[in-house]
């Protein structure tokens, strides 16, 4: 595991303990000027007209995992699983839909009850309905933790970034839902194009 990944893991553990202990604030109130500057960097990154594509690995509750290819553009996330078997996940608008080709099962979940919904606002704006619960950085890595401002108990999403050539690079989505289920998506082999796809 890389030094950045280890440090990022430490940051996630810290932010989870702080946020779940009830020390969160609404919007960006209570953040330092430097933290607000970093939060605005993340907003700008997530709202650019771009598409990220690459590989993901997933670790879920009880350590069960998966892997495949992902595509992210502002307001939309697609996961195409190859492991443990072929499945597709499409998340945008108000819902997440998981289609299991092995069993034929289709699962539809409201994004208002899933931490991924915090990432898929369009545009993403910290303040208002999204609350920054923690933001921190170490050399080469930074992260921000988010919750619903009006109902933070619905879940927590931590976005972990590497810093490369003074640019943010999204590396990890770390979510805890209202039931305490913890899912981590680690991104790799990520490429970026300059425009989001047309719907």
What distinguishing features does this structure have?
single chain, 199 residues, alpha+beta, eleven-stranded antiparallel β-sheet, 47% strand, disordered N terminus, signal, Outer-membrane lipoprotein carrier protein, LolA/LolB/LppX, OM_lipoprot_carrier_LolA-like
Q: Give the overall form.
A: globular
**Class by alpha and beta content:** alpha+beta
Please bin the fraction of helical residues: 10-25%
Strand order across the largest sheet = 6-5-4-3-2-1-11-10-9-8-7
**What is the CATH topology classification name?**
outer membrane lipoprotein receptor (LolB), chain A
Q: What count of domains describes the coordinates? A: 1
Order of helices and strands: HHEEEEEEHEEEEE
Q: Please report the distance between the alpha carbons of the first and last residues.
A: 37 Å
Mean pLDDT: 85
- Strand-residue fraction? over 45%
Organism: Asaia krungthepensis NRIC 0535
Pfam family, one: LolA
Protein name: Outer-membrane lipoprotein carrier protein
Keywords: Lipoprotein, Signal
């Amino acid at each position: 595991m890389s030094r950045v990944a280890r440090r990022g893991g430490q940051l996630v553990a810290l932010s989870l303990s702080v946020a779940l202990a009830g020390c969160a604030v609404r919007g960006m109130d209570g953040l330092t000027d430097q933290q607000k500057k970093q939060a605005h960097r993340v907003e700008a990154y997530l709202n650019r007209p771009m598409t990220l594509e690459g590989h993901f690995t997933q670790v879920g509750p009880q350590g069960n995992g998966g892997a495949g290819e992902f595509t992210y553009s502002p307001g939309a996330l697609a996961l195409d699983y190859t492991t443990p078997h072929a499945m597709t996940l499409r998340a945008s608008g108000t819902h997440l839909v998981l289609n299991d080709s092995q069993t034929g099962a289709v699962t539809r979940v409201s994004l208002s009850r899933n931490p991924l919904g915090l990432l898929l606002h369009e545009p993403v704006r910290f303040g208002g309905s999204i609350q920054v619960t923690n933001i921190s950085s170490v050399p080469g890595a930074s992260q921000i933790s988010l919750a619903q401002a009006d109902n933070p108990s619905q879940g927590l999403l931590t976005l972990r970034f590497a810093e490369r050539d003074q640019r943010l690079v999204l590396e990890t989505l770390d979510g805890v839902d209202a039931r305490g289920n913890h899912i981590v998506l680690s991104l790799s082999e990520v490429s970026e194009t300059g425009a989001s796809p047309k719907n």
